[in-house]
């Protein structure tokens, strides 16, 4: 039986869970594959911290570089997070001929191209299924089953925290602040939730998925993003009234402008009103989903637990098994990305929009608002007026399809009308046929 040694770099909550799953599965894995995995070394930040027995019994060190440079270590699992230190360690490991498994989305989204190239040059694996939607198997299908399938569109709910917040607002009729408080109380949201609720986490994951889907390098810097802060309970209520759910959507598509030999990529993270009959509208709580449109395979949906220690550790273990099998056979699996993507920054993603505003309930106000939209070529599909307090009226518009540029310009003009008291959160309407 062949033995392969694994070195774990970083052992926080997910690392601790990973070690537990490793211990639980290693005998079964040896029986199935003929490969015995050992985990002799773990690098931690604080050697004095009290740890569970299954961690403390390992040979701990606070020198991560020593593990990466240890000639007896075959595979490195990186879980320290961040970019700078992790980038150095992962690059060293790959250059030393070690396969690497990581769940570090920031690292893959920012430095993926360099790491893919180094893994290929060294003839080893660089695997990162846990970096996007945890236990939901999406990286492997994109790298393998759908490798030669022309994918035209990818959309998803990639952040469990924001989806949980929106679910609680929708299901329990509570406001954003209370839903965020609940998410934090259950450990779904960090004390500082900005990366989740403002869309940065989803943007990093989307960059990774788009790179694989379109076989062109996309980095976090390529992804424009906005989050869910500013969405109010009334927006949820109006969405329900109009047969929509509000979701934070991560979206990418390829487009041909007739001039470029390679397709352009449009990519963005944004909150949107999603029709109730679309499968993404039913994705609730901390669940994630990825929806793909492909030329020949048609529409595909990948769904499951996209967050949490156990699902993430399970995804890491799956990659570790792949790396071990490949290493025992003397092969490695490439990341099929050639060159950098050309991102379409000019036209953006066209869609219908939802717009809500409070105005003075005076004659002629509606005409002014409609005139500004019309002057921007924006036609109104639905208009509703709801009375509010103190002589104000709430206007709700659903528009026909328009561009980002024209809609944003119209909103800026509307803010200058004296009768407009406040403009609420505007959002796209997406997946409507």
Short key terms for the protein model shown above:
433 residues, alpha/beta, 14 helices, six-stranded parallel β-sheet
Quaternary class? single chain
Mean pLDDT: 93
Uncertain segments of ≥5 residues (pLDDT<50)? none
What value does the Rg take, in angstroms? 24 Å
Q: Bin the strand percentage.
A: 25-35%
- How does the major sheet shape up? 11 strands, mixed
**Morphology:** elongated
| Count of distinct strands | 17
Q: With helices defined by DSSP (H or I, 4 residues minimum), what is the helix count?
A: 14
Distance between the termini: 56 Å
Question: Which structural class best describes the helix and strand composition?
Answer: alpha/beta
- Indicate the percent of residues in helices: 25-40%
What does this structure look like?
This protein is of the alpha/beta class and 433 residues long. The chain is 37% helix and 25% strand. The protein contains 14 helices and 17 strands. It has helices at residues 13-33, 53-56, 64-68, 84-95, 105-122, 139-143, 160-172, 176-185, 194-197, 200-214, 233-241, 309-329, 365-375, 404-414, and strands spanning 2-9, 35-43, 59-61, 75-78, 99-102, 126-127, 151-157, 224-225, 244-255, 264-275, 287-294, 298-305, 353-360, 380-387, 392-399, 420-423, 427-429. The strands form two sheets. Strands 7, 8, 9, 10, 11, 12, 13, 14, 15, 16 and 17 form an eleven-stranded mixed β-sheet that branches. Strands 3-2-1-4-5-6 form a six-stranded parallel β-sheet, sandwiched between helices. Helix 1 (13-33) links the parallel strand 1 (2-9) and strand 2 (35-43). Helix 1 (13-33) packs across helix 12 and helix 7 crosses helix 8. The model has no long low-confidence stretch (mean pLDDT 93).
């Amino acid at each position: 039986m062949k033995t392969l040694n694994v070195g774990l770099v970083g052992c926080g909550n997910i690392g601790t869970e990973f070690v537990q799953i490793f211990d639980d599965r290693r005998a079964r894995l040896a029986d199935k594959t003929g490969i015995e995995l050992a985990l002799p070394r773990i690098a931690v930040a604080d050697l004095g911290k009290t740890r569970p027995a299954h961690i403390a019994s390992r040979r701990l060190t606070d020198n991560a570089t020593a593990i990466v440079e240890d000639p007896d270590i075959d595979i490195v699992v990186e879980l320290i997070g961040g970019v700078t230190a992790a980038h150095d360690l992962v690059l060293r490991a790959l250059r030393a001929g070690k396969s690497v498994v990581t769940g570090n989305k920031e690292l893959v989204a920012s430095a993926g191209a360099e790491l893919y190239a180094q893994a290929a040059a060294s003839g080893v694996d660089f695997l990162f299924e846990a970096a996007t939607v945890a236990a939901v198997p999406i990286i492997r299908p994109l790298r393998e089953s759908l490798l030669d399938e022309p994918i035209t569109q990818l959309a998803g709910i990639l952040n469990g925290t924001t989806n949980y917040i929106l679910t609680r607002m929708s299901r329990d009729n509570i406001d954003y602040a209370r839903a965020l408080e609940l998410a934090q109380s259950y450990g779904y949201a960090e004390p500082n939730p900005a990366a989740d609720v403002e869309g940065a986490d989803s943007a990093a994951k989307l960059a990774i998925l788009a790179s694989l889907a379109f076989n062109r390098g996309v980095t976090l810097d390529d992804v424009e993003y906005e989050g869910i802060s500013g969405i109010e309970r009334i927006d949820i209520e109006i969405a329900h009234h109009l047969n929509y759910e509000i979701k934070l959507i991560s979206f990418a598509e390829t487009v041909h402008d007739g001039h470029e030999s390679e397709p352009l990529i449009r990519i963005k993270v944004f909150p949107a009103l999603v029709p109730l009959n679309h499968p993404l509208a039913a994705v609730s709580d901390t669940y994630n989903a990825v929806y793909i449109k492909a030329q020949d395979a048609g529409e595909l949906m990948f769904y499951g637990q996209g967050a949490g220690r156990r699902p993430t550790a399970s995804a890491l273990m799956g990659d570790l098994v792949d790396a071990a099998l490949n290493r025992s056979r003397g092969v490695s699996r490439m990341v099929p990305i050639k060159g950098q993507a050309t991102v379409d920054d000019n036209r953006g993603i066209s869609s219908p929009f939802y717009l809500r505003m409070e105005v003075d309930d005076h004659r002629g106000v509606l005409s002014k608002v409609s005139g500004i939209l019309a002057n921007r070529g924006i036609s109104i599909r639905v208009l509703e007026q709801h009375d509010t307090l103190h002589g104000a009226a709430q206007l709700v518009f659903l528009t026909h399809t328009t561009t980002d540029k024209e809609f944003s310009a119209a909103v800026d003009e509307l803010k200058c009308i004296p009768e407009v008291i406040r403009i609420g959160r505007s959002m796209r309407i997406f997946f409507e046929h």
